[in-house]
Write a structure and sequence with these properties.
This protein is mainly alpha-helical and about 160 residues long. It has 2 domains: about 90 residues, Alpha Horseshoe (Serine Threonine Protein Phosphatase 5, Tetratricopeptide repeat), CATH 1.25.40.10; about 45 residues, no CATH class. The chain is about 75% helix and about 0% strand. The longest helix has 17 residues. It is elongated and about 65 Å long. InterPro entries: TPR-like_helical_dom_sf (IPR011990), TPR_rpt (IPR019734).
C-alpha cells in the first residue's frame, strides 16, 4: 500500500504543479510512504523539499519531525538533534513538540551527558505537563541525577 501511495503522490506532484495545497499534501504523503518503506534517504529528501519549497505550510513541523526521525534512522544523531531542537524552538505549539523535546533529552542520555539530559528532561516536565512522556522523563531525570552522584535530587525525582 505504501508503494501505491508513493506512486500516486508522485503523479500528483508531477501533474498538478499549480495546486499548492494539493502539492504540499502530496509531498507529505510521499515522504511518509517512503519513510514507512524504510527509504529514509528518499524520505529525507522529500521532506527537505517540502520545507524548502513551502516554508509557511502548516505541515512544516510534521515534516521536520520526520526529518529528525530519518536522520536518526540513518545514524546521524547530531543532525537529528538539530532538527528536534528547531521544532521545540520554533514550533513549541506543535502537537508533537513534546516528542521532539523527549528526543533532545534522549540525545544527551545516549551521550551520557547527564547534566544536560537532566536540564532537557526538566524542560519536558515544565513545558509539556500533559505529555505522555512524563513518566519516562521523571524516571530518566532521576537516573541522570543518580549518575551525577546527586542522590538527594535522584530520590526526589
Amino acid at each position: 500500500k505504501f508503494a501505491e501511495g508513493e506512486s500516486a503522490s508522485q503523479k500528483v506532484i508531477f501533474n498538478y504543479p499549480q495546486e499548492r495545497e494539493l502539492i504540499i499534501s502530496a509531498y507529505s504523503l510521499l515522504g511518509n510512504c517512503q519513510y514507512n518503506q524504510e527509504k529514509y534517504e528518499e524520505a529525507l529528501s522529500t521532506f527537505q523539499a517540502l520545507a524548502e519549497k513551502y516554508p509557511g505550510s502548516n505541515l512544516i513541523p510534521a515534516a521536520l519531525l520526520r526529518m529528525g526521525e530519518c536522520y536518526e534512522q540513518l545514524g546521524d544523531d547530531d543532525e537529528s538533534f538539530s532538527v528536534f531542537r528547531t521544532i521545540v524552538r520554533d514550533f513549541a505549539g506543535f502537537e508533537r513538540a513534546d516528542f521532539a523535546q523527549w528526543k533532545i533529552a534522549s540525545y544527551f542520555i545516549k551521550k551520557e551527558d547527564y547534566t544536560q539530559a537532566a536540564l532537557e528532561l526538566e524542560n519536558l516536565i515544565s513545558n509539556f505537563p500533559g505529555s505522555s512522556y512524563l513518566l519516562d522523563a521523571y524516571y530518566w531525570r532521576g537516573w541522570s541525577f543518580y549518575k551525577l552522584d546527586n542522590f538527594l535530587q535522584a530520590g526526589a525525582a
